[in-house]
């Protein structure tokens, strides 16, 4: 039989030796697959070859059982599969799916920070706010290509195979891009070459066929048609990886009971059952499974079916810089943008999310291009408004309409429709939507992903399942922003239906939204309802939406949006009222959790209001207890982080409370912890914060009894290559030469940091002075003064004091050579003197305090032991005269077994054990600005009570008095 007489049959060759398996098939060129092109160049065809020419190609037939033939089939399909996957995943679309937004992934990809995580419960807090309020974990990073590789650590045996990996991460953090990079590196031969096939089954696509019956093989053919030539044995014989991207987007119910098992790839069942059996290992038990999910949905899969849990934390500080420098070709502009974002805490935190980096780069590049001195957005709302305006301008440049009014109306119609979609779907809890959802909001589905740039197709091409498309906003936070914009718009145009959908029932009949024309009252009611709704929420699911609503209400932001809004509202008085309402809630609601307190504080920041003083919060009813609760400390810690400077001494709390606030250090540029009675645990916390790439630039731990052990714990921080510390002050920390050597060792490990070191008043030793003076340590400033004057006991600075009769109030009697004071009811006949306290029962000592001084006093009754400037008022009984109630004096109030310190009319109760002695020691270091009080036992052991840190500007004198009842 000749070749031309057979229709697609096998042609047997009769050569005794053949370099190929002895099976070939006859095909036209049109029917033959393009040979896989694994080069970096484009695939081209030969124009000289006629398209209708019949050729003979040596190809394995599908029915042949020869092992070599099957191996060739498998390799050919594998090559085709890799080619197909490379074509699909080699490009990344930033924003909408338009050709101009297409970028090669390898050119712009920035490594994400991924860590191994223990499986834990569901966090019910809004994920973006959770990220703002918590410190980023510093653990050993895992590259996405190593997801299935065990860590090379003690206890990790090779036999501990990692089969199922669950990767968590908030919306937009880079889960899908990590999947894309994982696949691309495999197709290009860079990683995981022991894997034969990778099958990607996104949940957003599986949703479209969730009600249909499929076998696993049939399902894979729909997603990967090139598999049709394979023998089904390959699923068990080859190493395959199934990737299920976006568990949080699933509208299927996964089942993990034993009720319905599927064991064969040809057995049909629902898609949910197939996926569940793959995860459980009933179907293809050797297959590797990778699942990605937002945190809230991760618990859908029982932990026993997960071998490893990883978490994508997005970009760390260095990765953020790398992204902006790759994204922005102008180095000067990139540096300016990076510098601006680092200065603004909320924006900097949000830039851990890659998609927010893209939004920020888009906005800031556009602003600086138009005007190099342009005012840069300060809040999230401002950034998102500018992004919206940028997208509108891009649309205008491509739009044929030249009439400005028609163009404006067209833009308004588009944005309002998209905002309506965002609002309605957010109220339903949907972040993914289909064509019918768009139609409900009167959006033309043929234009939605082209004309705006705000609502975009998720897929880079049409879904392979039923040719349907799925839509979403570029990020959940942008949906929340547009939803807030829509609600504000509806409130202005008196669209009661949407407003009532949002507001609490109590406001729906209040008359504020019934179209009475009282716009400001209406707006206040709306904003008040938003605040109340936030306080009532258990999971904070609308917190960011409400934050945007408050931000949009500002007149300055309304002006930015004036072309889109049909009206603007004079809201300054409303903003004042709602600001006060929020402050009253923060300072007056005793039952408010730390989470809600912090969220209300963020509301204030979004309205450009930073007037809530930390001290005001501490003295409020919310914190008017003897000891701050953990919730209060968490709130204060967050407020300190936002302020960018950590100084717990400015908060009149106990030493214990101050130590609990140390967690705030990790996000502050400057941490001033001098005289805070730090413990070993505090040193560990500080050391951990120094190992972060966002670590403090300045740390002051002076006047703490750290000793060598504390400094050893602290030294682990500067040893880290991530450490950014420039200034370290550890004066008077009871450190010997041994402890100073720990610091020297840390500096030798990381000579780039710090630049300034203060080890004064420690027993550092001359050899260490010589060592640290070596230029290799690159210290710009080294202070080791008084290195031989180590203070092991303040008593070494004992100072004799005598009471000054000319200052004694007439109800005080002095005795024992003016070294004892007693309060009496009957006035003493003292002569008039301008330095006498005429109303307050107080007395000062004769001797001024200079340098370092220590003295002790025994007490009984209700007594103040104080230090004051000579210039303290002596007249009357006002706060200007009372020890501790003004800026010119500091006092320790002693009564029974209780101690309270006072300064500038601010008090801090000191937590001490019962049965304290009736003797107090006072130690002052004038030049260092420290004043310490101690309880002195019968064996002369000192127990630290409190340390004030200040800058003494006048001569100091010891004083004593009767505390006012």
TrEMBL record:
Keyword hit for tRNA-binding: no
Keywords: ATP-binding, Cytoplasm, Leucine-rich repeat, Nucleotide-binding, Repeat
A GO MF term: ATP binding
Localization, UniProt: Cytoplasm
Coiled-coil annotated residue ranges, if any: none
Domain B30.2/SPRY: start-end pairs: 781-965
Comp. bias intervals (Basic and acidic residues): 1-13
Annotated NACHT domain residues: 163-297
Transmembrane segments: none
One of the record's GO cellular component terms: cytoplasm
UniProt key word Cytoplasm: yes
Sequence segments annotated as region (Disordered): 1-47
SMART domains with a match to the protein in the record: FISNA, PRY, SPRY
Name of the molecule in the record: Uncharacterized protein
Species the sequence originates in: Cyprinus carpio carpio
């Amino acid at each position: 039989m000749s070749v031309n007489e057979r229709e697609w049959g096998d042609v047997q060759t009769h050569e005794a030796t053949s370099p190929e398996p002895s099976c070939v098939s006859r095909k036209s060129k049109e029917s033959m697959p393009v040979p896989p092109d694994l080069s970096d160049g484009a695939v081209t065809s030969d124009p000289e070859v006629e398209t209708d020419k019949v050729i003979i190609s040596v190809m394995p037939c599908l029915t042949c059982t020869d092992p070599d033939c099957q191996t060739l089939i498998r390799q050919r399909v594998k090559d085709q599969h890799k080619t197909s996957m490379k074509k699909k995943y080699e490009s990344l679309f930033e924003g909408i799916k338009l050709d101009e937004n297409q970028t090669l992934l390898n050119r712009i990809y920035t490594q994400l920070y991924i860590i191994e995580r223990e499986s834990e419960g569901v966090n019910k807090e809004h994920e973006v706010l959770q990220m703002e309020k918590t410190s980023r974990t510093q653990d050993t990073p895992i590259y996405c290509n190593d997801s299935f590789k065990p860590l090379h650590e003690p206890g990790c045996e090779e036999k501990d195979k990692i089969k199922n990996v669950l990767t968590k991460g908030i919306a937009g953090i880079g889960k899908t891009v990590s999947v894309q990079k994982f696949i691309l590196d495999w197709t290009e031969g860079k990683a995981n070459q022991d894997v034969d096939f990778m099958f990607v089954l996104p949940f957003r696509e599986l949703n479209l066929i969730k009600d249909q019956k499929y076998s696993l093989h049939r399902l894979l053919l729909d997603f990967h048609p090139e598999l049709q030539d394979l023998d089904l044995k390959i699923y068990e014989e080859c190493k395959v990886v199934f990737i299920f991207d976006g568990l949080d987007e699933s509208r299927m119910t996964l089942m993990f009971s034993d009720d319905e098992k599927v064991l064969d790839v040809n057995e049909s069942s629902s898609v949910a059952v197939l996926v569940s059996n793959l995860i459980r290992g009933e179907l293809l038990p050797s297959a590797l499974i990778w699942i990605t999910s937002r945190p809230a949905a991760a618990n859908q899969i029982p932990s026993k079916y997960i071998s490893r849990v990883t978490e994508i934390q997005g970009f760390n500080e260095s990765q953020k810089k790398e992204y902006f420098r790759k994204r922005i070709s102008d180095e000067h502009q990139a540096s300016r943008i990076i510098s601006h974002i680092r200065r603004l805490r909320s924006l900097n935190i949000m830039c851990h999310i890659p998609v927010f980096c893209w939004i920020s780069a888009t906005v800031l590049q556009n602003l600086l291009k138009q005007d190099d001195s342009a005012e840069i957005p300060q809040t999230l709302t401002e950034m998102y408004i500018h992004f919206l305006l940028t997208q509108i301008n891009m649309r205008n440049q491509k739009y044929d309409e030249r009439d400005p009014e028609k163009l404006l109306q067209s833009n308004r119609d588009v944005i309002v429709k998209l905002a309506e979609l965002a609002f309605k779907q957010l109220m339903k809890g949907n972040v993914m939507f289909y064509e019918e959802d768009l139609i409900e909001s009167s959006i033309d589905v043929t234009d939605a992903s082209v004309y705006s740039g705000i609502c975009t197709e998720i897929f880079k091409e049409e879904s392979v399942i039923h040719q349907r498309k799925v839509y979403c906003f570029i990020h959940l936070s942008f949906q929340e922003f547009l939803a807030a914009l829509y609600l504000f718009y509806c409130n202005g145009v008196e669209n009661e239906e949407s407003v009532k959908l949002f507001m609490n029932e109590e406001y729906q009949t209040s008359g504020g939204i019934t179209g009475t024309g009282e716009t400001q009252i209406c707006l206040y009611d709306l904003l008040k309802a938003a605040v109340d709704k936030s306080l009532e929420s258990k999971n904070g699911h609308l917190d960011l939406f409400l934050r945007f609503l408050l931000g949009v209400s500002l007149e300055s932001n309304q002006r930015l949006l004036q072309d889109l809004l049909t009206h603007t509202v004079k809201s300054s008085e409303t903003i004042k009222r709602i600001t006060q309402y929020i402050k009253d809630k923060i300072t007056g609601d005793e039952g408010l959790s730390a989470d809600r307190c912090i969220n209300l504080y963020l509301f204030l920041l979004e309205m450009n209001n930073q007037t809530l003083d930390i001290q005001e919060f501490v003295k409020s009813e919310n914190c008017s207890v003897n000891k701050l609760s953990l919730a209060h400390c968490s709130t204060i810690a967050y407020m300190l982080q936002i302020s960018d400077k950590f100084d717990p001494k400015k908060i009149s709390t106990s030493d214990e409370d101050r130590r609990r606030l140390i967690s705030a250090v990790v996000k502050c540029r400057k941490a001033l912890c001098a005289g805070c009675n730090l413990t070993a645990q505090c040193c560990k916390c500080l050391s951990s914060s120094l190992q972060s790439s966002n670590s403090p630039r300045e740390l002051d731990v002076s006047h703490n009894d750290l000793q060598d052990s504390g400094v050893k714990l602290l030294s682990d921080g500067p040893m880290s290559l991530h450490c950014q510390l420039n200034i370290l002050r550890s004066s008077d920390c009871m450190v010997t030469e041994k402890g100073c050597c720990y610091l020297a060792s840390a500096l030798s490990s990381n000579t780039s940091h710090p630049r300034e070191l203060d080890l004064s008043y420690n027993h550092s030793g001359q050899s260490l002075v010589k060592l640290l003076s070596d230029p290799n340590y690159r210290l710009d400033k080294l202070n080791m003064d008084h290195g031989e004057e180590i203070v092991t006991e303040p008593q070494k600075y004992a100072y004799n004091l005598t009471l000054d009769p000319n200052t004694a109030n007439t109800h005080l009697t002095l005795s024992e050579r003016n070294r004892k004071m007693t309060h009496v009811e009957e006035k003493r006949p003292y002569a008039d003197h301008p330095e006498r306290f005429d109303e307050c029962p107080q007395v000062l000592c004769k001797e001024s305090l200079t340098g370092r001084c220590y003295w002790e006093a025994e007490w009984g009754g209700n007594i103040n032991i104080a230090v004051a400037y000579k210039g303290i008022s002596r007249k009357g009984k006002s706060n200007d005269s009372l020890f501790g109630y003004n800026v010119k004096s500091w006092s320790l109030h002693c009564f029974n077994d209780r101690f309270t310190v006072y300064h500038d009319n601010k008090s801090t109760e000191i937590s001490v054990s019962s049965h304290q002695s009736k003797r107090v020691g006072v130690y002052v270091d004038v030049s260092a600005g420290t004043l310490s009080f101690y309880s002195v036992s019968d064996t002369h052991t000192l127990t630290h009570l409190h340390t004030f840190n200040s800058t003494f500007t006048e001569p100091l004198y010891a004083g004593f008095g009767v505390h006012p009842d």
